[in-house]
Amino acid sequence: MKSIWSLVYNILFLPALYLLIKFAGLFNNKVRRGIAGRKRLFEELILSNNALNRTGKLVWFHSASLGEFEQAKPIIKKLKLEKKLNILITFFSPSGYDNSRKYPYADLISYLPFDTKNNVDKFVQIVKPDLFVMIRYDIWPNLIWNLKKANIPSCIVDATMKKNSSRTLPIIKSFHKTLFGDILRILTISEADAEAFKIFNCDDDIVKVVGDTRFDRVYQKSIIARDKKLISSSVLDGKKVFVAGSTWEQDEDVILPAFLKLVKYDKDVLMIIAPHEPNLLHLEKIENEFEGKLKTIRFSHLNNYSDEKVIIVDSIGILLTLYTYADVAFVGGSFKQNIHNVLEAAVYGIPVVFGPKISNSHEAKELQKRGGGLLIRGKREAYRRLRSLFSDKGLREARGKLSLKYVQENIGATDKIIEEIEKVI
Q1: Residue range 331-351, pLDDT digits in tens
Q2: 193/139 Cα distance (integer angstroms)
Q3: What range defines the domain where residue 326 resides?
Q4: For 149, which of 106, 183, 344, 404 is 20 to 30 Å away at the CA?
C-alpha cells in the first residue's frame, strides 16, 4: 500500500503543492521569504554540519512554525544541557526560522527542504540524524519514508488527534495509516488523543500519553518573568490590576465598555491592555475609546505616569511578564476566532476570563470546567464577572488557586518525553 500512496503523493499531490506555493509567493510576503530562504539551504547546511563535533549523537527536531517550537524548547534545553546531545532544528515557516536563528541550545538551524525524494535524501545524508522528532503535527511523507528506509527512528511529541479529524475520513485514513506505521513513538497530550490515534491501528507500545510540554514551558518562563521589573511599584501600589492580553478589536468591543462601567464603582482598578497587533492605528483606536472618559497612557511613557487608569502596551514580547501584575486576566482572540494561550495567565494563580470562541483550546475548556476560567458572552456578562471578582478578594483568590492547580498538575511532560527518547536513540 505504501508504494501506491508514494506514487499518488509524488506524481499528483506534490507537484500541485509546489505550484500552489510558487503561486502564493507572488502575493504573500511570508511565502516568498520561505522560498528565498531555501535557495542556499544545502550549501549552508553543509558548512554548518562540517563545523559540528559529531562525537555525540544528533537529535533532529522539526517544528512547523514558532508556536510549535515553543513546545519543543523544554525538551531541547534539557537534552542539550543534561544529555550533551547535538541538536538540529528545522522549520517549515519563515516565522519560526527567522525568530529562532540565535536559539542558544541548537547546533544547527535550517529550513526544512521541500519534500521531494531527492531533497529529503540529500538532507538526511548530510546531517545523518540518530533520531527525528516532530512537534504536534507536520508530517512530510517522503521524509518519513526515507527515515524508515534508513533505519532512523522518528517520533511525534505533543501529538493531538480529534476523533472527528479529517484525517479519519476513509481515503485519508488509509494514507495516514501508512505514515503512522513508520513512526516509532507517538507521544500524546491526553488519553482522548491516544484513543483517536488507535483508529489508525497504532499499537499501545507506539502510542503513549505523556502530557503537554506547553505547561512546562510556561512554568519555566513564569519563573524568569517574576524577577523582571517592568512596572514601578509606585504605579501599582494600592491598585487592583486587570490585564487584557493579546486583544483584537472584537475583544475590545466587549472588554473596554465593561471596564469603563467597573471604574465607576471601583476607583482602585487599573487596566493594562496589550493588543495582539500594537500598530499605530490600533493604539489610537483604543485611546479614542477612552477619550473624555478615562485618562490613558502608553507603556513606553510610563516614566510620566500620573494616575492614569489605563496603560496601553505599545510593544510586543512582554505579555507573560505583564500577567505577573494581574489580579484578574482576560485572554484575547476569544471574541474573534481562536483564543490565545490561557496558560500564560493561569500559571500566576489568577482568574482567567475569556470569550466564547475557545474550541481550539483544550486548556481554556478545562479551566472553565474547573472554575479557574470564566466564560463571558457579551458586555453585560463581562461587567458582572469583573465586578464580582474585583469586589471580592476571597473569590479572586479561590478561583486563582484553581487556575494554578491546573497548571501544576500538568507539569512534567518534558521528563516523560526524554525518557521515551532515551529508549529509542
Answers
A1: 999 999 999 999 999 999 999
A2: 17
A3: 224-409
A4: 106
